[in-house]
Structures are given as structure tokens and as C-alpha cells.
Amino acid sequence: MQTPHKTRWYQSLTLRVLALFWFLLLGAAAAAFYTAYHYTQPTQPEPLAEDFERTLQPVFESALGAGLLQPGRLLVGEYRVLARYEHTALEPTFAPALHPDYRGYISDLLDQPEALQVPVGDKMLAGPFTVDNALLVVARPLTEQEISELIAQHERDWFPRVVWLSVAFSGVGALILGVWFVRPLRRLRNATREIAEGKAYPNLARLPNRRDELGELARTLAATAVELATSRDAQRRLLSDVSHELRSPLARSQIALDLLGDETETLRSSPHYRQIEKDIFRLGTIIDSILWLSRLENGLDEPIREEVKPMELFEEMKGDIGYAQADWQERLRLEGSDLPTLQTDPVLLRLVLENLIRNGFQYGPEQGIVTLTAKQVQSAGKACLKMDIRDQGPGVEPSKLEQLFEPFFRADPSRHHGAGVGLGLALCQRATRVLGGELEAQNHPEGGLIASLTVPLA
User: Fold this and answer.
1) Do residues 16 and 122 share a domain?
2) Does Transcription count among this protein's keywords (predicted)?
């Protein structure tokens, strides 16, 4: 069975869903934290600016008494008294119609040991100023420079905190949502792989009990697994029955034909007799190929791995091919030296190589050469043996190269009717997958078709 493609980390659905949830929560959390911080963070008092002392000191010195400096009175320019506190009073006196937000800041300023200033809204509050036995808090409008500095300070103060808090809280929330959303998908993925391995009852845990779309998908997947297993078992029984029902009449026909030939010697020399004998043999070969192909596709044949010396296998195969076709042995060229030992199934490997070599002779010219070249290569980080089988035929149209390994496909059905029905290369492809290798075909630049078989050394 082909090894499942492993999803790379940057292609993971888990990562994508996690990132999506994270970004959404990050934006919402950032907006919430910004709003909360901006409207709830109190402004801290700062040292008194020179303009307050320079402007108010002459006013305080020229005043006849603190009793004239009442809350709400405009002192000079835009400087106005907002609050007044006398030691004999229980609470400070505020300017008429003063907004409640200012009173808390004024109370904080009155508790300070020295005069400070604090921006509140569009005003700069300053105090406490001592005049006689009274404490005064004075305000003026904020200048444009102070407004700009205040905005910049707010950005410096709240932005890093909002970012880190947003990242932390949204990260935890995204992780929980991502795991909750992706976990059933991973369970479905693993169950699908189990079904591909032939299991009738994949491990779906409690997914079929869910009432949402994922639960419906899990129930459908479970039913499909049972149906596939039932169909696979029926197909295996059919293969066994077909093997018996087709081979038995063919065997009897072959025996009957041999007995008929023994009774009448002149019959063996008849072209009709030879044609029947040839057709019976060809039909048996086709049936064996179809059954073998089905067994490979259904995983009924597993490779039996053992040590194989490539050159010895090639020489043995060359001798067997020459036994059936003497001239093929002379026209088969073997190239390769110092080849490593393989750990593979020699029967499947030989099946593939023999089919490829026979195709080379059948589709090549009358006295064409077929060359088998072998060498060690690296493929997908593993040591492999690559075997190229090249013929001297006309090659295949580029548009049909990808179809060569499909069952019953023939690149040129009008030629070489004795070459088969198009199952040889399909068998080779399936057998190569069982061996864990790769098989591909391409036209050689100098002419002919070259089939490349690559199998791992171990």
C-alpha cells in the first residue's frame, strides 16, 4: 500500500484554524482592552509647570485676602479657581456647576504636600496653592502641545500592555477552540486511513453520537467502511471462484487437445491445431494476469523479502527468455557493475522486469536491441537500485505516456495483436507499488521507449 502523504506543518488545517481563531479573538480582545484601559486608567499628577507659578504668583500676592479668591472666579487670562479648602471647613468648596469627574482629582491635589498639576479632560488642574489659611486648586485649558504629549503618553503606556494581554488571552482561547474544532477531524482522518487498510470498524470513538454535521459524516463513514469490507470479501470469494471455474475448463481443453494430437500425429502439423493450442495458452496467460492484478490491488499478495543479487537475477532471466525465444537472448544487453544486494521479493521483481523486456522486444523492430541498465541511486533520501529498460521501437505519443499503466490500455491497438491485451504494464505498476518502488516511462531522446524501475535496497 502506498505510504500516506504526510501533511507539512504549514499546510496543517489545525494551524490554519488556530490562526484564524487567534486573530479574531486578538482583534476583539485588543479593542476591549483598549476601551477599558483608555476610560478607566486614572491620570497621575506631575510637577507643576512654570507657567502656573509665573502667572499666578503676582495674582496671589496682589490679592487683598484669600476671601476674595472664591471658587469659580476668573483670576487672569483663562486661569480660574475650581476649588477652595479652609482648614476650619469639613469639605472643600467647588465652583458652581463643576462636573463630578473633576472633584476626585481636585481632592487628590488638595492632599498633596506641594503644588502639582494633572490633566483632566480638556483642562489642566493645578494645586494646592496656599493663600493665607486656604488651599486653592486652579485650572486652565490645555495647550495644543500638552494635548499632543498627553496622547503620545497614553499610547506609550497602554499599547504594550494591551498587546501582551490580548496575545495571552486570545492565544488560550484560540487553542481551546482550535482543539475543539480540529480534534474530530483528526479522528475522521485516522478512521479513513484505517478503512484504507481494510478495517470494517474504524475507531471513531463517540463521533457517531454527535448531532451535528461531523456526527452525520462519522455515521456515513462507519456505514461505508462496512459496505467496503463486505464488497472486498465478496470480491475475494469471486476471485477464488473465477480462478477455479476458468482454469478447470482450460486445463481440460489443453489435455483433450494433447490427447487428440497423440491419437493423430498428422493433426499436430495442422495450422488449425497450432492456432487452437496457441489461443488456449494465450487465454490462460490472460486469465492469470487478470487474477494476479486483482490480487495485487486487493492486497492479497504480500512481498516475501529475501536477498537478491541483481546481476545473477538478470542472467537467470536472460537464459529463461532465451529458452522461449532464442534470438531474444542474443538481443538482450545487460549493463551494470558492482551492483548492491537487494532485500526484496524476487518473484515480483522478476515479473516486472520480464514484462518490460518482453514489451521491448514485441514493440521493437525485428532485430532490435533491448538494453537493461542498472545502477545505484538516491531517491527520497533512500538508497535504491534503478533499472532502465530501453527498446529501439517507435516510442509512444507524449499524450499517451501517462495512460500506459492503465489496465487494458494499448498505445497502438492496430499493431502487434499478439502482444497482449494491455495488462502487462498495469501488472508491473501494481507489483512495483507492492515492492515500495516507482515505475515510469518516457521516450528516449535518441528514439525508443525507456521504462525506469526504481526499488529500495531494503
Assistant:
1) yes
2) no
Contact (Cβ atoms closer than 8 angstroms) between residue 142 and residue 124: yes
The amino acid at 358: R
Q: Do residue 48 and residue 147 come from a single domain?
A: yes
Structural domain harbouring 235: 213-297
Q: Which of 432, 401, 395 is nearest to 415 (CA)?
A: 395
Q: What is the DSSP string of 223-269?
A: HHHHHHHHHHHHHHHHHHHHHHHHHHHHHHHHHHHHHHHHH-HHHHT
- 142 and 19 in a single domain? The answer is yes
Query: Within a 10 A sphere around the Cβ of 444, how many other Cβ atoms?
Result: 13
Residue 143 sits in the same domain as residue 190: yes
Confidence of residue 438 (pLDDT cuts 50, 70, 90): very high
Residue 208 DSSP SS3 = helix
Q: Flag whether pLDDT at 453 surpasses 90.
A: yes
Identify whether residues 240 and 332 lie together within a single domain: no
Helix axes 346-362, 310-324, angle to 10 degrees: 50
C-alpha torsion angle, residues 409, 410, 411, 417 (rounded to 10)? -170
Contact 458, 343 (CB under 8 A): yes
Most confident option among 20-34, 272-286, 393-407:
393-407
Picking from 53, 91, 94, 87, the residue whose alpha carbon sits closest to that of residue 70 is 94
Same domain, 276 and 235: yes
Number of domains composing the chain: 3
Q: How far is CA 266 from CA 258, 260, 263, 281, in A?
A: 13, 10, 9, 21
Phi, psi of 84 (to 5 degrees): -140, 135
Co-location of 261 and 402 in the same domain: no
Cα angle: 60, vertex 64, 68; to 5 degrees = 80
Residue 13 has pLDDT above 60, yes or no: no
The DSSP output letter for 334 is: E
Angstrom CA distances, 279 to 254, 255, 258, 407, stand at 10, 14, 14, 21
